[in-house]
Amino acid sequence: MEFKAFLTSLGTSFVIFVVLMFLFTWLSRKPSNSVVYYPNLILKGIDPFEGGKRSRNPFAWIKEALSSSEADVIRMSGVDSAVYFVFISTVLGILVLSGLVLLPVLLPVAATDRSVRAADETSEGTFNDLDKLSLGHVGKNSTRLWAFVLATYWVSIIAYILLWKAYKHVSDLRKVALESSEVKAEQFAIIVRDIPLSPDGLSRKEQVDLYFKSIYPEAFYRSMIVTDNKKVNKIYEKLEGFKKKLARAEAIYTDSKKGANPEGTRPSNRTGFLGLIGKKVDSIEYYGEKINELIPKLEAEQKVTLREKQLPAALVFFTNRVTAASAAQSLHAQMVNTWTVLDAPEPRQLLWDNLPKKFFERVIRQNIIYIIVFLTIFFYMIPIGLISAFTTLENLKKLLPFTKPIVNQPVVKTVLEAYLPQLALIVFLALLPKFLLFLSKAEGIPSESHATRAASGKYFYFSVLNVFIGVTISSSLFDKLKDIEKKPNSIVSLLATSLPKSATFFLTFVALKFFVSYGLELSRIVPLIIYHLKRKYLCKTEAEVKEAWAPGDLGYATRFPGDMLILTVVLCYSVIAPIIIPFGVVYFGLGWLLLRNQVLKVYVPSFESYGRMWPHMFTRIMAALALYQLTMFGFFGLKQFPYAPVLVPLLVLSAIFYYVCTQRFYRSFQSTALEVACKDLKEIPNMEVVFRSFIPPSLSAEKTDDDQFEDALSQVSRSGSTL
Amino acid sequence: MEFKAFLTSLGTSFVIFVVLMFLFTWLSRKPSNSVVYYPNLILKGIDPFEGGKRSRNPFAWIKEALSSSEADVIRMSGVDSAVYFVFISTVLGILVLSGLVLLPVLLPVAATDRSVRAADETSEGTFNDLDKLSLGHVGKNSTRLWAFVLATYWVSIIAYILLWKAYKHVSDLRKVALESSEVKAEQFAIIVRDIPLSPDGLSRKEQVDLYFKSIYPEAFYRSMIVTDNKKVNKIYEKLEGFKKKLARAEAIYTDSKKGANPEGTRPSNRTGFLGLIGKKVDSIEYYGEKINELIPKLEAEQKVTLREKQLPAALVFFTNRVTAASAAQSLHAQMVNTWTVLDAPEPRQLLWDNLPKKFFERVIRQNIIYIIVFLTIFFYMIPIGLISAFTTLENLKKLLPFTKPIVNQPVVKTVLEAYLPQLALIVFLALLPKFLLFLSKAEGIPSESHATRAASGKYFYFSVLNVFIGVTISSSLFDKLKDIEKKPNSIVSLLATSLPKSATFFLTFVALKFFVSYGLELSRIVPLIIYHLKRKYLCKTEAEVKEAWAPGDLGYATRFPGDMLILTVVLCYSVIAPIIIPFGVVYFGLGWLLLRNQVLKVYVPSFESYGRMWPHMFTRIMAALALYQLTMFGFFGLKQFPYAPVLVPLLVLSAIFYYVCTQRFYRSFQSTALEVACKDLKEIPNMEVVFRSFIPPSLSAEKTDDDQFEDALSQVSRSGSTL
């Protein structure tokens, strides 16, 4: 790839970005678009245009983003979002502090080296001007390499210091959130799984109540047995569907009255397949009938479910936070794989289906899924390798000769050269996240946030292995394949050899990613178009319109691994080709700014895990750091630098740092510390409300019967006896 | 070594054993020896000779041992001893069930093989008759090897089944012991370590009380701050020394009155170095004065210690067992390395000096000690290798030619051949345990039983690595040294090659060990002689006599690794040379019988850990089993058996079995399950007694002052405010 191509790529991306940004300032000022650009504000009941201040300055959003505090983020979007900003600003800090030293020091050191250049260690093509500034330009076994060794240490030490501060800060954020005096339902509940068969013929409900009453005679409030809700959910969804359809039919009817015919036309539909065949009926009557049919059916099924479909899992409620926090951490049964406990997540993120899964079933599922993910990572390796090997312009011309006349046009050529390989990659990666989330849920994880973390971890390893290592190595795969066969252990040195060759690829990748994807992110063109189309042609009722502009959440499962991929790339190249650092800084700086806006005004978090994402982020950052150190170790080896082992202490240091951080902070992310849970609440919790918030919607009957004596939700049974 | 030498060794050992056994029956019948043979009974206030039944039948002890139940063992010697018997009977079961199949099947299969024998795979020397019965006698790549593969599976599967049953049984034993309705002080207390500096200038005592009162407003009883007791302990020991000397002097004076002089002679001593120089004084007066001097000094020092030498660790007491059990498992502080908690061991096994050691100090200490142990294991390897290489008779004659005339005598020769190498080994191993216990305590472990477990683990790895692998490999070290240098990975195949050569060595080792050491164990000749000598020449007071016959405990730290060494040897040879199995059966069978007697009548346990030793034993047995499977894998490889990989699933099976057992049972050995702790007590615990039982003797003043307001032991401070 030529230098010109790179500049073209950069230029086009930048133009796209600027266009999208102006589009944003123009579109976001229109009140009719406010539900697309300010849904979080609207849902929180704040008028986005109060005082009209938003209409004047097109860059007002930047000022607002910069002046917003962490407390604002927590208030508007929760602790998890704040933790995400801690992640971004920590990474930004690492890159800025690295760049401040590495750029002025390493670039001159590399550029002024006059020793012979090994031709095989420079970027593919003739990327001369940039290559002069990279480590590849320094001669073998040169004393100048010491500067690069010191730089490797500098980056690592900066990372340690900032990560330590970040971990401490996030731990404090979590502490403050958990000791808040607000009553949060999940702080009073625990999940109990693997309930053994009752020996003396008690119902599950009685068994659980008896068990926990005898252990916590004072603090035990009530239990809720998990039931098999498949059938009741089905009926409930059907009912909700009819309710929506009824509302829609009524809205259509009301609308029609406004037109020429003051009587209006009653909407009708066919009862058969997809409303296309069958008898034609009056919609309002038909749906009303259906609803009236289903309500008693639902109630009957609810009773049956609660009474007869109790599963060996439960939620147990306590009257105070300390007991709940302590109970979630304590071993309850002598047989460790029975009565296992876990702190409850928020009601909305409970994965009910996973609760009754058995202890060893979960272990087996987990292992099977690890194998599947492993296979996925390595079977995708092959197509990605092929794509990045074939999508060079030369290969394209060779393989598809008929494209030659088009491709040889200078403009087309430059654009294709700039985007072809990267686009293939990006499209490719877009297919995966849903599959990984599905796999993570299949592990038996009980909460949405935990499943998101698990999926995000898988996606991280996937993207680092496939995109970074895969592209790097496969770009030199065809001539190196024999070497790998000979010495399969030489992956580190192979990686180190291939890195400089792929430098320009990744520079373009980072640039493309930040300009185009951030432009799309900020302008929200796609959601805007979808919203307007839906509103115009589909939505009839208020609820439907609201659904059309529902902004969704930040999407940690893919956003964070995407950032991590960039971080890994930038870290690994930081010393080899320091010119990449500014790109990384722009990526994370721009990201901070844009997402601050999005988090404050657009996205609505779909769960709150009080920063549990952080240890996970920390581990991934450390993995990237270790990969970077390992690569540098291999790289200095390739440069025949005899002092390459001076990098070994750095790897040891990383291991120690990781160990100390994990020992010092991690467990408080797993469970709630009692000193935090024991803080006073501002009011005595209404346990009935706490309890009710966990009842799944399909089971919450309008009228509560107190006569449902032994069912899964009923009040503590009258027996006061202990086990 | 010749077959004759082996028989001689066996014969002599057996004769020694029979002699010692008769000595035991004769000596144990004399009432004057009862404190040596029945100290545990006497200390429990049971008359060993009631009804005179013990005097008739010389084998009565065998009947008694056989008829004693597990409940008897628990009553007389605690759960730990019962767990030790579970270990022995499990191992015995594995060996008996293996032997029942392996002996009748494998011996004929091996003996009738007519194929060519590889000379280098038989025992050293001409141990022909036994060698015929071993796997070494089977030809390479013979189909008969399938019998040995199946045997390998059989032994492993038997082991899995019995170990599973044993783990379940021990878990039940622990459960029953912990849910006992007796009040046990340690079930009401937790250890708190790593207490941070108080931010607002509170004393440690106030800080701890405030902290725990706010978390456990109802169940918190009192705290006891750990103090720096070095000085007060010194004074206390001095005082106790003088008290003993005074008692002794008074006893001598009383004795002298009984003799010729009815007035008696007042004993005197010199005040200088060791009582040899200095002024001669009247002992009774002198010691009385010294005691009167020290008592106020002790009291003053106690006050100073309690008030001013408070350290950042404490014991915290709760008014019920559930809260204590739950508190010991819960995370208390957001900073995980502060306020760390641990369930309290019995008061008598607390290692006070280790309590205030800091979190990361403990980690560092642990790692340093692992390195020291590692070095110890591998530096001892060299001397042991040399010893076992040199102490063959031929080497002895070559190296020390002047011993030739003696050594060539047939009797001397046979005895020397039989015992020389083994004796060196046994003496050698006797030096180590104390050192390993010292190291384990230096790790910062807070309880005696835990330190014993840690020492025992180190000793196990030491003995397996050094004795088993060391002897096996070094016996063929001189011709194989070059091979190792070439392929250092070939340790498994080297082990497999060397095993058959050392078979006879280990047969003799096992035989010697069980006959001689069990003979000494049962007859208690050494403690008997020491006791009688002491009583005759040294002891003057009752207390001194009691000290002279104090039986000590079972000595897990060395006994268990010793057994494990035998088990490892027998397991590894079980298929290669099944003839070793009966020896193993005799070792563990005899061991069970003898130790049943010793545990019921002799040894007094010095601590009770409610079976916490078991998971540790289980891990070691699994390690031995894995070593066995690995060795067999190497061995079949050496036999050029193409189906050797059929043993790989066995290793995987072992890993899964270990994982499942650990997941299912282990955590209930680490902490007390709440369902166990919540059982009713037979009386309301007297918390004052519970609290006092933890006060170290040097600090327990005769009169309790309630005015010691802010010291380490004082009552909850008056402030009722929360944090």
Greatest interface by residues involved: A-B, 44 and 44 residues
- Percent helix of chain A: 55-70%
Count of spatially separate domains of chain A: 2
Query: What's the total count of β strands of chain A?
Result: 6
What does the model show?
The structure is a homodimer of 723-residue chains. Chain A is mainly alpha-helical and 723 residues long. The first copy, chain A, has two domains: 3-181 and 360-675, no CATH class; 232-303. The first copy, chain A, is 64% helix and 4% strand. Chain A is built from 27 helices and six strands. The first copy, chain A, is globular and about 85 Å long. The model of chain A is unreliable at 116-127, 702-709 and 716-723 (pLDDT under 50). The A-B interface holds A 171-172, 174-175, 211, 214-216, 218, 322, 325-327, 329-337, 339, 359-360, 363, 660, 663-668, 670-676, 678, 680, 722-723 and B 171-172, 174-175, 211, 214-216, 218, 322, 325-327, 329-337, 339, 359-360, 363, 660, 663-668, 670-676, 678, 680, 722-723. Chains A, B: Residues 366-636 form the CSC1/OSCA1-like 7TM region domain. Chains A, B: Belongs to the CSC1 (TC 1.A.17) family. Chains A, B: One of its GO terms (molecular function) is calcium-activated cation channel activity.
Layout of secondary structure:
The structure is a homodimer of 723-residue chains.
Chain A (H helix, E strand, L loop, with lengths): L2 H26 L5 H4 L1 H5 L16 H8 L2 H42 L16 H4 L13 H34 L10 E5 L10 H12 L4 E8 L2 H29 L9 E3 L9 E3 H26 L1 E9 L2 H7 L12 E4 L15 H32 L2 H7 L4 H4 L2 H21 L2 H10 L5 H27 L2 H10 L4 H33 L1 H13 L4 H8 L6 H19 L5 H22 L11 H26 L9 H23 L3 H4 L9 H6 L31
Antiparallel strand pairs in A: 1-5, 1-6, 2-5, 3-4
Family (chains A, B): Belongs to the CSC1 (TC 1.A.17) family.
GO molecular function (chains A, B): calcium-activated cation channel activity
Main location (chains A, B): membrane
